[in-house]
Every structure is written in structure tokens, then in C-alpha cells.
Design brief:
mainly beta; 5-stranded antiparallel β-sheet; 3 helices; 13 strands; elongated
Length: about 260
């Protein structure tokens, strides 16, 4: 303890990192009675020579140039629909007995078979990317604003008046992220968002907005695409009647992938 009390005050300049970035790692290394603080881009240390050497050694591995990263986010959507129908119309006679599913039975046996089917497949892919230093915070978004005309009612001494105003409805796609690097692995605090205008319109003139969001912390290797979330839906319908049948199915899915690359490697 006396060695710490009599130790000289050391000032260690930082070259690449900030005080806030290195202090949480170095503080637990300070022996009892020692002092470690920071100001601007300098560390202020008072401890024993042996402990000071240990702190310098660990700091050398921390005070390195920040790695520049490219964060890529991919929004993928797909939808498919199938519709198949069979319709049988006709009259079957046996002697004086006739079985028919037509409004006007024919005077002889006859059968008409009609079959129809349709298929549709849609897919969409949106890629966004942004550069950020490790440990930094990044945000990117693109979108669309649509005007909505609205009537505003004002009460005046002479009565009520209605004036037309314009507001804007937004739909945006983007993400915010904080990456942290350890060797060849990256840990991300990431929140992606995908918004699109729907087809229906409300009474105010605003369209519905379809939204896909996620917020998570994930870890993966650099240079690899990995999925962080997705949703899917499947619908099936079947109807049968006298001489007819119909089967329909529809499926849709939305998925989000992320990739992190180190710029300059």
C-alpha cells in the first residue's frame, strides 16, 4: 500500500481510442489504493511500478486504430398464389330418368368438363449498406412521403370555417446499428425497419402502412450473410359442390439478412 501512496503520477496519452473506451477495461486492473482516471485524450494513473507496467501492457492492446466496417442489410420478400378449379356440367339420362346440374337439362346425355388454373410468384429484394467505425453508431434510411389533404375546422365569431391543409404520411426503410469487433467476429446491436404503403385508403385519405421491424443483438463472423429474423404466412382454401371443386393456396414471407465486412481488407 505504501508503494502506491508514494508512487508518482503518470500521464499516458491515448493515440487511437477515447478515455471512455479504455477505462472500463483498465479499471478492474488497478490494485487497491491505486488511482486511474482520464481527461480529454489522456489517462492519469497513480499506482505501483509493477501495476503500472501491467496497465501499460493491456493498454497497448486496446489503443489500436479503430477498424472501419461496412454494414449491409438485405430485406427480402416473396409471395406466391395458386388457384385451380374444375367444373363439370351436363346431363346423364337413363331411360326416362335424367340427372343434370344445368338449368335446362339437355335432351340427351352430355358432359362438359372445364378446368382452369393460375399461378403467380412475386419477389422483392432491397439492399442497404453504410460504413461505420467499430463501436460507433450508424443510421441510414430511405423512404417516401405522400401528401394528404385534410380539412381543418376553425371556430370564429362569425361562425365555423373550413380550410384545406396538407400533411405528409411517411414510409421509410433503414436500420441503425452499433458494431463491436473481437477478432474475426462482430457483435451487433441492430434495429432494421421496412415500411411500404398498402393499397387501402382510410377516410382521412391516408393509406395503410405495412411495417416489418426487428431489434436484436447478434454475433457472427465477418464476411458472412446471416439471417436475423423473418415472418411467413400460408393460407389454403378448398370448396366443393355438385360437379365442381376449387382449391386455392397463398403464401408470403419476409426475411432480413445482415453482413459485416471490414473495409480495407
Amino acid at each position: 500500500m505504501s508503494g502506491v501512496a508514494n508512487a508518482d503520477l503518470e500521464i499516458i496519452p491515448l493515440r487511437h481510442r477515447t478515455v471512455d473506451q479504455v477505462l472500463p477495461v483498465l479499471q478492474p486492473l488497478v490494485e487497491p489504493g491505486g488511482v486511474l482516471t482520464g481527461q480529454n485524450s489522456q489517462l492519469i494513473v497513480r499506482t505501483s511500478p509493477r501495476n503500472l507496467e501491467e496497465i501499460r501492457r493491456v493498454l497497448a492492446s486496446l489503443d489500436t486504430p479503430q477498424r472501419r466496417l461496412m454494414i449491409s442489410v438485405r430485406f427480402g420478400a416473396n409471395a406466391s398464389a395458386r388457384d385451380q378449379a374444375v367444373d363439370v356440367r351436363g346431363t346423364v339420362r337413363s331411360g326416362n330418368v335424367a340427372i343434370s346440374n344445368q338449368r335446362v337439362p339437355s335432351d340427351r346425355s352430355s358432359v362438359t368438363v372445364r378446368a382452369r388454373g393460375s399461378e403467380s410468384d412475386l419477389s422483392e429484394q432491397i439492399d442497404q449498406r453504410i460504413q461505420v467505425l467499430e463501436g460507433g453508431h450508424a443510421f441510414i434510411a430511405t423512404g417516401e412521403s405522400r401528401p394528404i389533404r385534410q380539412g381543418v375546422v376553425s371556430v370564429t365569431p362569425s361562425g365555423r370555417t373550413v380550410t384545406q391543409g396538407t400533411e405528409f404520411q411517411d414510409a421509410s426503410t433503414g436500420f441503425e446499428v452499433v458494431p463491436r469487433i473481437s477478432g474475426d467476429r462482430v457483435t451487433l446491436d441492430i434495429a432494421p425497419q421496412r415500411e411500404t404503403f398498402g393499397g387501402s385508403v382510410g377516410r382521412s385519405g391516408a393509406r395503410t402502412v405495412q411495417s416489418q421491424r426487428a431489434a436484436t443483438t447478434v454475433s457472427a463472423r465477418l464476411g458472412e450473410w446471416f439471417e436475423i429474423g423473418g415472418v411467413g404466412e400460408t393460407r389454403d382454401a378448398s370448396t366443393r359442390g355438385i360437379g365442381s371443386s376449387r382449391e386455392a393456396s397463398a403464401s408470403s414471407g419476409r426475411r432480413i439478412w445482415v453482413r459485416v465486412d471490414e473495409v480495407g481488407r
